[in-house]
Amino acid sequence: MRILVVEDEQKVAGFIKKGLEEEGYAVDVAFDGREGLVRALDGVYDLIILDLNLPQMDGLQVLREYRRKQGQTPVLLLTVRAAIEDKVLGLDTGADDYLTKPFSFQELLARLRALLRRRAETGSPLLKVADLTLDPARRLVFRGPEKIDLSAKEFALLDYFMRHPGRVLTRTMIGEHVWDYDFDPMSNIVDVYVNYLRKKIDAGREPKLLQTVRGAGYVLQGD
Ligand code: CA
After folding, report:
1. What is the Å distance from ligand 1's center to 183 Cα?
2. Full-model pTM
3. Which residues constitute the domain of residue 95?
């Protein structure tokens, strides 16, 4: 899961980024509205957290422009303005939810999970490859009847694989989706995490689902 945070206040942006990374999300930050819009339109994000008060373009302008260009990703608006007309305007413009500052990190996390769950439920409720099952809404993984415990990062990685079964995913694709824009394509972090994941889902089990495609990347497939 990759999240874009558009927030000019460094402290707030840093606090959100750090907290979300600890939960296993990949997080990019844009510090003004214009940069936020450009990044949002990249289309690689699962969720956008958008502050209303921003330099260059304010949050509502960003949101309006993003929706006008057919951006589909759920947007959670942040604001200090608690006035009801601001909320209505934000929701009318295409925001999916609203959070008034100051907020606790736990509240942010709860809203964000609700948005991702809603999205997962309208998309594909359960992801399945052979006897491997991933439940995005409840964040659970099973191989056959056996529950598999994954770290937040391993879960994010498996989620990405299970949304593209049978397709070869390169290290760059994986890095861009599961890590953030500081991802170094020369590092071996993708291989390291794929190996962790493989140990948990494939070790001692048949068939092996997560395979290396030499010189290309990795593929998750049932047969
Ligand atoms: Ca701000």
Report:
1. 26
2. 0.66
3. 2-122
